[in-house]
Amino acid sequence: MLGSTGALFRSCLLACCLLTVVTSCSDEPTPPGTLPPDTASPTTSSASSAPSSSPKPTTPEEEIRAAMVAYFEAANEMFRTGDVRELRSLSTDGCPCRKITRSVERIALEGGRYNGTRYDVKKIRVHDIEGETGLAEVIAVVPPYRVIGGDGSIVEDSPGGRLHTDFSLFREGEKWIVGNALNLE
C-alpha cells in the first residue's frame, strides 16, 4: 500500500512517464546518467554529463535530445539533494511534470529524503519538430526506492517501475523548455 507521498509520486510518474515494458538486448544495466543512442542497440552509451566528451548540439533534434538528458540529470539530482530549482528551470509552471517537484520539496523541507529514487533513461526519441517546438518520447526505468520522512519513518517503500512519456518542448532563447508531458499508454 502506498502512502500519500507514494501515491503523489506514482501519480506524477504516470503523468510524466507511463509504465511500460522495456526490453533490453544486454544483461548489463546502463549506468545511471547515461543514455543509449536512439537506435536498435540499447547497449552503447552515448550521453555523458561531461560537456567536453561530446560536441555541442547543432541541430534541433540534437538540442532537444540534450535538453531531455539535462532534464533527467536534474531530476536525478533533485532526488539526491531535495533541491528542485534546476528541474523547475527546465519546465513551465503548467507542466504536469512539475508535480513531483512539489512533493520532493515538501519532503526535503520536513527533513526527509528520497532514497534510491532515480530515472534510468533507456530511450529518447525526438520527433515532430516544427520550428521552435518538438516532441521527445522517453522510456525510463525507476528502480526500487524509499521515501524517508523527517522523523526517519519510511513514508513509502516503492518497487519502482518502468515509464513511458512524450514530452512537448519549445525553444526559449537558446534553451529548450518542457511545456507538457503526455502519457503514451
Tell me the structural class: alpha+beta
Second rung of CATH, namely the architecture: Roll
The share of residues in extended strands comes to: 25-35%
From the N-terminal CA to the C-terminal CA, the straight-line distance is: 23 Å
Radius of gyration: 16 Å
Q: Helicity, in percent?
A: 25-40%
Please tell me the total number of domains: 1
CATH topology: Nuclear Transport Factor 2, Chain: A
Q: What's the helix-strand series?
A: HHHHEEEEEEE
CATH class: Alpha Beta
Poorly predicted segments: 1-52
- Major pleated sheet: 4 strands, antiparallel
Work out the number of β strands: 7
Give the count of helical stretches: 4
Mean pLDDT across residues: 79
Annotation keywords:
Nuclear Transport Factor 2, Chain: A, four-stranded antiparallel beta sheet, 185 residues, disordered N terminus, 4 helices, alpha+beta, three-stranded antiparallel beta sheet
Helices, strands, pairings?
Layout: H1 4-16, H2 60-81, H3 85-89, H4 99-109, E1 113-115, E2 120-130, E3 133-142, E4 145-148, E5 154-158, E6 161-172, E7 175-183
Antiparallel strand pairs: 1-4, 2-3, 3-6, 4-5, 6-7
